[in-house]
Design a protein that fits this description.
The chain has 411 residues and is α/β, with parallel strands linked by helices. The chain has helices at residues 3-9, 36-43, 58-70, 82-93, 108-117, 133-139, 162-171, 184-187, 231-240, 244-257, 263-274, 276-295, 314-320, 336-345, 375-381, 397-409; strands at 75-79, 99-103, 124-128, 144-150, 176-179, 197-201, 215-219, 302-304, 328-332, 350-351, 361-363, 387-391. It binds pyridoxal-5'-phosphate.
């Protein structure tokens, strides 16, 4: 099945009890068993059944099956946020003394997790230019347990050459983790290009309406967990096979961190997901039109959008993505002051910390998401002080451009 069909049909058949076509919200904490033996078997993994909604829940499970199928993966875990998906994945693959290689200029929360929070537990990170495979290769050490990149770095806008990076990462015997939040399965299935684990912040394009926070981890089934440097997961692989990593999270890291989503949020995410394929078409079209408009505007100093033929990542993006280049772009107007003035003059675009809403959104990253870093740190991460990030919505393209045109006239 193709994505526009999968978003509506995968992973759920009408409820056998009621015929409900919409996935029911199982708003329950736990599940009654008929006998003491049955619940003991469920706890021991010997028998079926949901136990407790921190571990799994039927509404969350329907969302997980749909996402796993969309990514062509073997299993999925839905999390309370994108950051929960990233922290459980990284904590599930590392121990004190281990090391992570990650792309520069990726999501600020991920940078903070890897450089600040996890350093308190003895896990270190090196940030590299992910558009340069040699940089990735030289950063990998014997203690490196994973390489983490974003399909389109938010907000640096780099598009890494996934198959080339996967080759280097797999030679080192470790998994490639790819955050595909900005692209979604509509534009790319990273597993087809070598990714072992795919992460989504489903708060963004997958939910699509800015009404809840959520995340997901998908195992694409490519990594052989029975080999490799993860002893505990290798042991699980004897019982769980290809599902070893998902089982490791479900029965240990994710269970213990307690980062489960609310079943109601999974319901909202399932509803949002239904329109993903047609929404992405509009996001991509509107972002491209806006990028082209900004690129020729005399007050705009630079634009980064992988769909512009002048963009350094255009070639890679054209090779890897199908059907468009995403809804996010960045541009600069020379100074932080001019950027903030421009944002204040926009009327349609909303000034807020999110992407992937059906409405057009803007933010000044340096003074908000990246304010905990110094100007030098931000420059190194590829977040200059004059950067404005735009998430193009699905409104009329002419209305979006008119909004930016009139705001630019006033600065
Ligand atoms: C927003 C975002 C995250 C974090 O997701 P939350 O749902 O906000 O926790 C991770 N990666 C990328 C690329 C994001 O845009």
């Amino acid at each position: 099945m193709n994505v526009p069909t999968q978003v509506l049909h995968s992973g759920y058949l009408p409820d056998p009890q009621t015929g409900s076509t919409s996935v029911p919200v199982y708003q329950t904490a736990s599940y009654a068993f008929a006998t003491a033996q049955e619940i003991a078997d469920a706890f021991g993994g010997r028998g079926p059944g949901f136990i407790y909604s921190r571990i799994s829940n039927p509404t969350n499970a329907a969302f997980e099956r749909r996402l796993a199928e969309l990514e062509g993966g073997v299993g999925c875990i839905a999390c309370s946020s994108g950051m929960a998906a990233i922290s459980s994945t990284v904590m599930g693959l590392t121990r004190a003394g281990d090391h992570v290689v990650a792309a520069k200029g990726i999501f600020g929360g991920t940078v903070s997790l890897l450089s600040r929070t996890l350093s308190r537990f003895g896990v270190s990170a090196t940030f590299v230019d992910s558009s340069n495979v040699e940089d990735v290769k030289t950063a990998i050490r014997p203690e490196t347990k994973l390489v983490f990149v974003e399909t389109i770095a938010n907000p640096r806008m780099d598009v890494p050459d996934l198959p080339a990076i996967a080759e280097v990462v797999h030679k080192a015997g470790i998994p490639l983790v790819v955050d595909s939040t900005v692209t979604t399965p509509v534009l790319i299935r990273p597993g087809e290009w070598g990714a072992d684990i795919v992460i989504h912040s489903v708060s963004k394009f997958i939910n699509g309406h800015g009404n809840s926070i959520g995340g997901a981890v998908v195992d694409t089934g490519r990594f052989d967990w029975s080999e490799g440097p993860f002893e505990d997961i290798a042991q699980l692989a004897r019982k769980a096979g290809k599902l070893a990593f998902i089982a490791h999270l479900r029965t240990l890291v994710y269970r213990d961190l307690g980062c489960c989503p609310s079943p109601f949020n999974s319901f909202l995410n399932l509803v949002g997901l239904e329109g993903l394929a047609i929404r992405m078409e509009a996001h991509c079209r509107n972002a491209l039109h806006l990028a082209e408009f900004l690129a020729q505007h005399p007050k705009v100093e630079w634009v980064r959008y992988p769909g512009l033929s002048s963009d350094p990542c255009y070639e890679t993006a054209s090779r890897l993505f199908q059907g468009g280049f995403g809804g996010v772009l960045t541009f600069g107007v020379g100074s932080a002051e001019a950027a903030m003035k421009l944002i204040d003059r926009l009327a349609l675009a909303q000034n807020l910390a999110n992407i992937g809403d059906s409405r057009t959104l803007v933010i000044h990253p340096a003074s908000t998401i990246f304010q905990e870093f110094t100007t030098e740190e931000r420059e190194a991460m590829g977040v200059p002080d004059d950067m404005i990030r735009v998430s193009a919505g699905v409104e009329s393209s002419a209305d979006i451009i008119a909004d930016f045109e009139s705001a630019l006239a006033g600065i």
